[in-house]
Design a protein that fits this description.
194 residues; 9 helices
Length: 194
């Protein structure tokens, strides 16, 4: 990604996409400090020069950085503002809302996590009415969140251990896509809690 930056002019769409790839690579490699530098730079650099969807994507990336860095309150603060994911509510917006539930659970704010889950579920229902289906992976994630919250959130995480639903997320058709809109793999995060 760093080498390919030399091929594009700063501000061009391909340059922005390459910086996004650089951020993902650093985040996935566990280089949180450098990932933070990249995304903070992008958020400041591209405030007005690109479309609303991409600006929302960068804000979501920054929220993912804060989550990975254990700054769950900052993560939820960024996620509190509306996103411009009108054309991809079952992908980008869904995963941004899941991240908000995860951050609330990390803070042991079960009631807030429940509110966020119900908001997420209403989004899912509206999308079904509009004939926009969730991916099989996201349907499983939605069901896992529902079961976990009904079990009491972090206080009862052990009850989720060995659940068939969690195992389904590792099947090839439901595997995490590192190039998709789910930057923090839900199954790895949940498995780390059990």
């Amino acid at each position: 990604a760093k080498d390919s930056l030399k091929c594009f002019n700063q501000g061009e769409l391909n340059y922005v996409v390459t910086r996004e790839s650089e951020f993902r690579s650093l985040l996935y490699a566990g280089d949180i400090k450098d990932a933070g530098k990249v995304i903070k730079n992008m958020v400041n650099e591209y405030k007005d020069s690109i479309d609303e969807h991409r600006l929302s994507t960068h804000r979501y990336f920054l929220a993912c950085f804060h989550f990975a860095n254990g700054q769950f309150r900052k993560c939820n603060q960024l996620l509190a503002d509306a996103f411009e994911f009108k054309n991809d509510r079952t992908g980008w917006e869904f995963n941004a809302r899941v991240l908000g539930v995860m951050a609330s659970l990390e803070q042991n704010k079960i009631e807030i996590a429940q509110e966020k889950y119900y908001s997420l579920f209403r989004l899912f229902e509206r999308n079904q009415e509009d004939k926009k289906a969730l991916s099989p992976r996201n349907k499983i994630i939605l069901e896992l969140i529902k079961k976990w919250i009904k079990a009491g959130g972090n206080k009862s995480i052990a009850k989720m251990k060995g659940t068939e639903l969690l195992a389904k997320l590792s099947l090839p058709k439901n595997e995490w896509d590192p190039l998709g809109s789910e930057l923090i793999p839900f199954d790895k995060w949940m498995a780390s809690k059990v």
